[in-house]
Amino acid sequence: MQDFSFSFPICKIDRARREIRGVGTSEILDQQGEVLSYDGSKAAFAEWADGVPLREMHQPVAAGRAIQFDFDDPHRQVWVTAFVSKGSQDVWEKVLDGTLRMLSVGGKRIVSTMKRAADLPRRVFALAKNIPDQVRWTERWQLQEISLVDSGANPACAFEVVKSAGGVEFRKRAAQDSPTVLAQVTAAAVRVFAPLQAQFADLRRAAEEMQDRAEDIELQFSDLGDLGDRLTHLEGQVPKPSPAKVATPIMTKAEIRAALRNLPPGDPRRETLEIELFKQ
């Protein structure tokens, strides 16, 4: 019995090969408040080496087969390529005209627990309009089928460029008929870049503060330079002691004689030095 289904928009159509391509599972929150673990999804798809049955609207009617799975580790999602059988022409026509526009995986939970949203990575809520307090985290599950459906709960899809005219025409109709998906992707981009803008603003403010501090330090060095100039000027104004004042009992006779030689005859300071020399 099927426990759940997760749906994603069809991203690419190849008319000639009757193939469709889109995201099978992505580790993001769906509108029912559940997340399929990417590791659990890889294990679930790996069990179907020969392909997964393709249904219409999860009804027990064979419509084709999912034949290729690509594991997108950087974005933590699984891409699915499926073909629609020639015996299901009505299903194929519904795909081409946009009636069936989503891939929906159906499966059974094996290990599933409720977790606090605050404990989960932020990428899980990339396309969420509202973040609940509790999220069902399905760690292991069993893949039972993939269906083509007309609507679904999970908005994740990265549109690819398709060279075939049919693919381009379909993608244009899908974009016009599904403005909510585009709005959600735009909102998600805003949510992703808003923190980066805040970080750049913080870095800009920090740079401005560092610039202000550098200017303050430059002013302080300028003040120190002015102070040095003033000290040099004051030093020049301090009178130098005369040899007479320097002459003390500590001076040796040689020092006194040297001081006398530097004084011209008749200098009144010579008398003090000569007296000191006579004392010694």
Please describe what this structure looks like.
The chain has 280 residues and is α+β, with helices and mostly antiparallel strands. The chain has 3 domains: 174 residues, no CATH class; 61 residues; 37 residues, no CATH class. 40% of the residues lie in helices and 28% in strands. It has 7 helices and 8 strands. A 7-stranded mixed β-barrel has the order 1-2-6-5-4-8-7. Strand 1 and strand 2 form a beta hairpin. It is rod-shaped, with a radius of gyration of 43 Å. About 11% of the residues have low confidence.
Write out key terms for the chains shown:
single chain, about 280 residues, alpha+beta, 7 helices, about 40% helix, rod-shaped
Approximate shape: rod-shaped
**Terminal Cα separation, in Å?**
125 Å
Largest sheet, in brief, is: 7 strands, mixed, barrel
Whole-number tally of structural domains = 3
Low-confidence stretches: 157-187
Please report the total strand number as a whole number. Answer: 8
Measured by DSSP, the beta-strand proportion falls in: 25-35%
Q: Give the strand line-up of the largest sheet.
A: 1-2-6-5-4-8-7
